[in-house]
Amino acid sequence: MHYEVKALRGDELTALALEAVDAGDAAIQAQDQGYTVIGIKPKAGWLMWRKPGTGRFALVLFSQELLALLEAGLSLVESLETLADKEQQPEIQKTLRQIITSLYEGHTFSHALQHSPATIPLLYVATVRACEKTGGLPEALSRYVAYQSQMDAVKRQVVSASIYPLLLAGVGALVTLFLMVYVVPRFSHIYGDIGGDLPLMSRLLMRWGQMLDTNGPALLTVTAVALLAAIYTITRPVSKRWMMRKLLKIPSLGGRLHVFQLARFYRSLGMLLRGGMPVVTSLQMVSDLLESSLRGQLALASASIREGHALSKAMDQYGLTTPVASRMLRVGERTGRMGEMMERIAAFYEDETARWVERFTKLFEPLLMVFIGLIIGGIVVLMYVPIFELAGNIQ
């Protein structure tokens, strides 16, 4: 099985692609090459299906339950054993048991999480590793739960705003498909003898119906193959990066996407800094949250910070701030509360993004309804034009 490994060699964060039996084997391979492993996840393949009976490791729920047990006075091992005893899903219970075994062997909690069968995010492992130096595991768990809850809230806002337009577009597409595949071919039989007297668009529509009626199975097969090929292409990482680059070039939408990326970047970076992680290491860990073109800018900013320049100056110089963010970063440097200030920047832009999404959907929904209505209405009118022509000839 193929695994993607995030690892450190010195101060440089590296992504490795390894073939291994399991996550532990991949970690051993990376360590043998001189890397310090930070995170491991299976490499996504085409049509990866989840085996029956396997459970997804609910990290937020795990963190909330572990936090409650720790605050109740239980030790870390006792808390994990309690969670393992009450767990009913075999795969999750196995993961917890392996983490407990690793702790009994003398490893740290972050090491146990990193080498567990579950896919633990890099940010989570880094947060736990940072708190192990200070003994503030409950605070780190609470910080991650708050971070993930806020990120999920932003996603829910975007998804809920997208549901109605997507539903409307889907219904419109189905109605259009029904007219073009079922209704138009039957009308084309009726109007077969008067095609020359019809307007151009009506003739084209009737010819489409005749062609579909004659070569229907072949056309449907070609369409299905083309649709599957399009879905496969869209799901590829290269295609996603290409689409993101194109979207970022759209004046209004590109600016909003840029701000949204920066909001996620600042929230994640702020969480790591508040947990005690060094600035340069934190920047490397959250680089994957940025679009590929911005990662190069982030690498240059990291190099500038390593040379002794101020964080706010480096971020502003390489296009990783906005006017508001730049001012707030300078305030964070003066007060020594950079992590908290970054989270405030993220909250400001998340609220702004939510307001923009709401305004956009309120404008887009009626425009989409008008567009779909024009398409369906145009098809119906073009189908009934021959009836009007027959009525005129009879008179």
Largest sheet: 3 strands, antiparallel
Oligomer: single chain
Low-confidence stretches: 45-55
Tally the helices: 15
Q: How large is the radius of gyration?
A: 28 Å
Order of helices and strands: EEHEHHHHHHHHHHHHHH
SSE class: mainly alpha
Q: Note the beta-strand portion.
A: 5-15%
Number of strands: 3
Form type: elongated
Kindly describe this structure.
The structure is a single chain. 74% of the residues lie in helices and 6% in strands. It has 395 residues and is mainly α. A hairpin with a 2-residue loop joins strand 1 (2-9) and strand 2. Helix 9 packs across helix 10 (251-274) and helix 13 (311-317) runs antiparallel to helix 14. The chain is elongated and about 90 Å long.
Question: What layout of secondary structure does this protein have?
Answer:
Elements: E1 2-9, E2 12-19, H1 23-32, E3 36-42, H2 59-71, H3 76-86, H4 90-104, H5 109-114, H6 122-132, H7 137-190, H8 200-235, H9 237-249, H10 251-274, H11 279-285, H12 292-306, H13 311-317, H14 323-335, H15 338-394
Antiparallel strand pairs: 1-2, 1-3
Name its key features.
74% helix; elongated; mainly alpha; three-stranded antiparallel beta sheet; 395 residues
Provide a compact summary of the structure.
The protein has 395 residues and is mostly helical.
